[in-house]
Amino acid sequence: MRTLPTPQQLRYFLAVADELNFGRAARRCNVSQSTISGAVNDLESALNARLLERTKRHVALTREGAAMAVHARDILNRLEDIADLAHSLQGPLAGGLRMGIIPTIAPFLLPDLFTGLRRDFPTVRAQVSEDLTPVLLEKIRAGTIDCAVLALPYPTGDLIVRELFSDRLLIAHTSTQKLRHSAKGVTSAVLRQSELLLLNDGHCLKDQALAACKLSPAEIAVSFQAASLMTLIGMVDRNLGITFIPELAVPSFQKCFPNILYSPLAESRAQRTIAICWRPGSHREKDFAIVAALIEALQDA
Fold first, then answer.
1. β-bridge pairing 271-278 and 160-174
2. Interior angle at CA 108, CA 106 and CA 111, nearest 5
C-alpha cells in the first residue's frame, strides 16, 4: 500500500515553496527548521521524487516540485472547504473569521465593523490580516485567510467579488496652499503643478488615484512618499504638499486635523469601489454575506 502525503507535510512543503528558504518557512509555520526539513524529506521519500534543489545558500523548486505545489495548494484548500462546510452547518460565523483588509480601509472600517460583529455574534472569533492587495489575494488562494476587503479596480482573477460601496477620492490640502479649482473640482492640470505626497509603491490607492486623474508618475512632482495615510495627512497639515484621500477616511482625519480641507477631483470617475472577495467553491458564502451586509449598513447609517 502506498504511503500518502499528510496535510502537515504538504503545508510545510508549501511554506518552503513560497519562501524558498527553510528558515523563513520554519518561522512562518512556528516550528523548528529541522521539523520543516524532516517533513519535506519524508514527503520526497513517500513520493519517490525530488521536489527541491537545495544547497547551503540556495533553495529552488524542481519541475516535479513546481507541479506538486499546485496540487498541494488545491488539496489543502479542499480540506479547508470541508472544515468550512462543517462549521457552516453549525450556524452563522461558527468557525470564526479570518479576514484580510488593506491599510487604506482598515483603520476607518474595522472598529465599527467589529463592533457590529460582536453585537450580533458575541461568540465570534476573528483574526485580521492587514496587508497590501496582492499579498491578501495570495493568502486567499493559499487558504490562510477566508476573505478580504479591498478596493477596486484591481485584477482579482478567478476569485468571487462582491462590490459593497463607492468611495470618492478627494484632495487634502490647507487654505494656505490656495489650491485652484474648476467648477467641478481640482483638475489634473492643477495636480501636475502641485507638490504631491503619495503612498509608497504597492498601495493600490496611489495607482487608482493617478489612473482616475489620467496622470503618470513621470508627469507629476512627487515630493514625499510614505507607508500610511496618517503620515501623509500630517505632512499636508504642515503645508508640505497635497495628497489623495479616500472619503472613507475623512471623518477620522477631521478629528485630528481640523484645519485640513477636502476638495473633490474634477474627474467624474475619481473613486474606488470597496469590495469583499473570497475563493470560488467556499462553503462560507453566507458568512461573507453577513460581513458584507454589516459593511453596507455602516455606509447607510
1. antiparallel
2. 80
CATH of span 95-301: 3.40.190.290
Boundaries of CATH 3.40.190.290 in the chain? 95-301
User: Could you read off the pLDDT of 175-204 as tens digits, one per residue?
Assistant: 888 788 777 888 888 888 888 999 998 899
User: Torsion angle of alpha carbons 228, 231, 233, 238, nearest 10°?
Assistant: -160
CATH of domain 7-86: 1.10.10.10
pTM for the model stands at 0.74
- Going 35 to 39 to 45 to 48, the CA torsion angle's sign is negative
Closest by CA position to 197, among listed 222, 179, 175:
222
Where does the chain hold its CATH 1.10.10.10 domain(s)? 7-86
- CA atoms of 228 and 203, how far apart (whole Å): 9
pLDDT digits over 206-240, tens only? Answer: 999 999 888 887 878 787 889 899 999 999 999 99
SS3 of 129, please? strand
Q: Hey, what's the cell of 163?
A: 462590490
* Cα–Cα distance measured from residue 192 to residue 263, given in angstroms and rounded to the nearest whole number: 16
Nearest one of 54, 58, 55, 51 to 14, comparing CA atoms: 51
130 CB-side CA count, 13 A: 10
